[in-house]
Amino acid sequence: MGKSLVEKIWDAHVVKTIDGGPSVLYIDRHFIHEVTSPQAFAGLRKRGLPVFRPKQIVATADHNVPTILQHLPIKEELSRQQVDKLVSNCKEFGIELYGLGHPYQGIVHVIGPELGVTQPGMTIVCGDSHTSTHGAFGTIAFGIGTSEVEMVMATQCVLQSKPKLMRINVDGELNPGVLSKDIILYIISKLSASGATGYFVEYAGSTIRGLTMEARMTICNMSIEMGARGGLIAPDEVTFKYLEGREFSPKGKDWDAAVAKWKELYSDQDAKFDSEINIKAEDIQPMITYGTNPGMGIGVDQSIPAEQEITEKEKAGFLKSLQYMGLQAGQPIKGQKVDYVFIGSCTNSRIEDLRLVAGFVRGKKKASNVEVWVVPGSKQVEKAAQEEGIDKIFEEAGFQLRQPGCSACLGMNEDKIPAGKYCISTSNRNFEGRQGPNARTLLASPLTAALAAITGKVEDVREYFN
Amino acid sequence: MKHIKSTAVPINIENIDTDQIIPARFLKATSREGFGKNLFRDWRFENDDEAQPKKDFPLNDSKWKGRILVGAKNFGCGSSREHAAWAIKDYGFDVVISSFFADIFKNNALNNFLLPVQVSDDFLQKIFDAIETDPNTEIEVNLEHQTIGIPTIGIEEKFDINSYKKTCLINGYDDIDFLLSIRNDIEGFENKRKAVGAA
Fold first, then answer.
1. Looking at residue B196, what is its pLDDT?
2. Reported ipTM
3. Is the pLDDT reported for residue A19 higher than 90?
């Protein structure tokens, strides 16, 4: 019987399998950041252990960093301490750090791919659930907790049980104005916030094949939002072209050898999946969420479900969610006013996202009732935006182009959405308080967010593309 | 860890994500201790103010107490922050019961000797009904036999846990000790891969 892509990569990384237990999985690349690593370093110190393979770890500071005046000391003391701790830990344990001020600094899931650290066929972990992003390159990439971060630091291995396998095929032409963000929000709205728990998801089909690497990353990034342990896409010419010439990509003969090996990374014809789902691209509309988990999404021209459409079991959660959001069951979402627009996060902060937004807003001005933050995913994205004149377009539109970091995705650094305010956000989570206590998040694509920045409300981008 | 008998605190809400369990702004500590005081921070307090507890939230209601937390389906979804498991443990819970756990949370819990017990939807409903009827109802969890039950009303169910993790929990072993003990295998694996030109 043939093997699936996940099985091919998994089997190549199993050091041993424990009877009646998990497998010892060897990890090729480990990304770390300031929030989920300090206790792991402390653990090593307590045990008197070195980092086993420091060259396989890459560190950056992203969650806690401010996105303005990054050359000044971080104002919030605890944030500063945590970032400083990362600097001293990396120095003590011999780990490469792309910290604040470094030309490679940025959101961990943006810099890994853009530097070519992420490569097909690898196993990749990070103490961050959005590690699934790297799956876009045909990797087994998943988020881990701090105890596991310590395990990988100490032994380059983690203990994981073999996941179930799901394949989601998306085929056909996308409607104008529909982006990869809409594809994944649509999938999660169909499967629910727990629909893929226990699975690794392979995304396949002609629509997926037609996407750029950055668009593919957006899809894999949000796999965790339906509970999946990871999501991945078989590498192809698009992948190879993206990786060629990047800082840490193989060069010369090594490159040719690597590509030859990467070409074997696909699911065999007769590979078995525990679950298989088929989606027609033309059914996907520009999506938006109305509730407090990413599964609560609808097309922008649809209405929030009426109370009677919700099962008895889910009703309490549904109503709690709407009460938090200040929205009514059955109401249309189109026309909903927004106060903030956040374009950024490991989901949508890459140069293509910024280009798309800039192309759309060129010559337009933001609505007077909204504040617009565009936060590039990395120093390199920021630099490219400046070189391409995207910064000028944003300035003229009244958008703030800030400095790289996780920013308003998670209410941890200085960028928070005030209580009660509505933020249309290109990030990945709309949980209660995610963007700040009592902040109200509407997840959407960069285009839908850009349109809201101009009109001050939720609108249908298709009306502007026809 | 082998045997726990306790009253329980019910939070009958589905999809309890780790941002609720411990909001991101409390993740700035560099040690593992002290997260319990911010457990469910924004569900517990109005306006982020400890002087304004939300009276209807179970952790603020003195009739609910015990070492067992009961949540509805898809408990611990979202962020991988292990701080969520630390906060629950630090607050004083040793067991979390749900009909469904998010994968990363489940691993994090196990790595911190916080036992996630997954029960059927029906059984979970019976637990909620029993403890909501009588908050003094005791739940009994037997890790060795992998059973969970409420003796006073005569219900019991088996739960799954892999035998490796069960041994770890019962004996207080951790994964790092185990991984360090097979370091030769790991180095052997690395050498074998180098020899065939992989990675």
1. 74
2. 0.96
3. no
CATH number of the domain enclosing A128: 3.30.499.10
A414 touching B (Cβ < 8 Å): no
Q: Do B104 and A16 touch (CB under 8 A)?
A: no
Mean pLDDT of A53-78: 96
Query: What integer best gives the mean pLDDT of chain B?
Result: 95
- Judge if A349 and A302 occupy the same domain: yes
Question: Which tens digits make up the pLDDT trace of B29-63?
Answer: 999 999 999 999 999 999 999 999 999 999 999 99
| A-chain residues near B122 (CB < 8 A) | none
In 3D space, the residue among A331, A328, A353, A352 whose CA is nearest the CA of residue A341 turns out to be A353
Question: What is the DSSP-derived secondary structure letter of residue A173?
Answer: P
- Is A410 an interface residue toward B (CB < 8 Å)? yes
B-chain residues near A224 (CB < 8 A): 78
**Yes or no, beta carbons of B174 and A19 under 8 Å apart:** no
Domain extent, residue A159, equals 5-275
CB A225 within 8 A of CB A295: yes
What is the mean predicted confidence (pLDDT) over A426-454? Answer: 98
| Same domain assignment for residues A217 and A296 | no
Q: What is the pTM of this model?
A: 0.97
A432 CB neighbours in chain B (<8 A) are 19-20, 42
- Average model confidence (pLDDT) for chain A? 97
Asked if A23 and A16 touch (Cβ cutoff 8 Å), the reply is yes
Handedness of CA A423, B29, A111, A138 (dihedral sign): negative
Question: Of A189, A152, A83, A166, which is closest to residue A443 (Cα–Cα)?
Answer: A189
Which residues numbered 139-198 in B keep a CB inside 8 Å of some CB on A? 162-165, 174-176, 178-180, 182-183, 185-186, 189-190, 193, 197-198
